[in-house]
Design goal:
It is a single chain. By secondary structure, the chain is mainly β. The protein is built from 4 helices and 21 strands. The chain has helices at 47-61, 118-133, 161-172, 184-188, and strands at 5-10, 25-34, 37-46, 70-76, 82-93, 96-101, 112-117, 143-147, 156-157, 176-183, 192-194, 197-200, 205-210, 213-221, 224-231, 241-243, 251-254, 269-279, 300-308, 312-318, 323-329. The strands form 3 sheets. Strands 8, 9, 10, 11, 12, 13, 14, 15, 16, 17, 18, 19, 20 and 21 form a 14-stranded antiparallel sheet that branches. A 4-stranded antiparallel sheet has the order 4-5-6-7. Strands 1-2-3 form a 3-stranded antiparallel sheet. α1 (47-61) runs antiparallel to α2. 27% of the residues are buried.
Length: 330
Amino acid sequence: MSSRINVEIKPLQYYNKYASSDYTLCRIDFFLNQNAEEFHFQSESSNKSIDGLLINIKDFLSGNLLVGTELCYSIPWIYGEDCFYPYSFYVKDSETLTFRYKRNENDKQFDFKCDLTKDEVISMQTQINIQLSKTDWNALGITELYTFDFPEKAFEWCYSAKAFCKFLNELCVGSVIKKIYVGATNYAEPLRVDQNYVNYYIGSELLIQFDSFLLDLLIHAEGLFQWRVFNNGEHTIPEPVLKYIEDGYKEFCDIGNVYDNFNLDYTNSIIKQVTVDDTDCWPWDAKDFDESKVGNPIELPEAIHLHLDNGCVLSLRGLMDDFAIKMSQI
């Protein structure tokens, strides 16, 4: 087997698959040696894309692809649009297939190119087939999902950061935080994940489980916060069910330490104080948001900070079209 190119297919950690999806996401890694230097490129992929790559390889080896043919691969994104994978191939001639990598699909130039001989393409084909034979696609993307049965209770809009701060202090101080749940759609497709920080999409419910109540938040963006509270007698914490996502807005995931990126802990900590940052703007008009109730001066909520007895602060911040969860240490 060629040592010049190695391909690895790996499952995505914390991947949630939708039951309606006709594809399963994964990761593909290419290791290429060029001029005595090894280069590593990785990309999200799917079983459909890998099948397509194998068909392209077979057609190239059979001489059924024209010189100059570009072989590109797309990925279905969360909102149904297609994005292109950063890797592609180009039929340079009947004996050469060029691997190409481009970080930004809109760039005119490629960041990396490497010509592969037929033997090296055969090696790539063999490696992929061996790994596919060991991959259980039906097991990928199954996740523990929670479905809460709440009574009918409307969300309240927050029009005053000061009033919200007073309410949250009266509600939360002295209570123990147990878990945080985020909508399965957001959990499956975070915008950004860093150490002690995660950035999620717009308008997902965020459920914070305390010892005697559950705080249900909708953080649409900065200035656009909604909330409701359920006491323990009004709801039960369900047992998780291991399955694919069926309704990403009604099913939730326990974020735990957030994809192994939180080394600061919030669980089983007592709330010592709550502070709320304010903002004088909101980025867009939300349904049912009553502008006539906005005060003068405007002081809408921008971020909630839960100060914990372990010396950490759990922050929930609204951004322009999304929201973020952050842990920090005082």
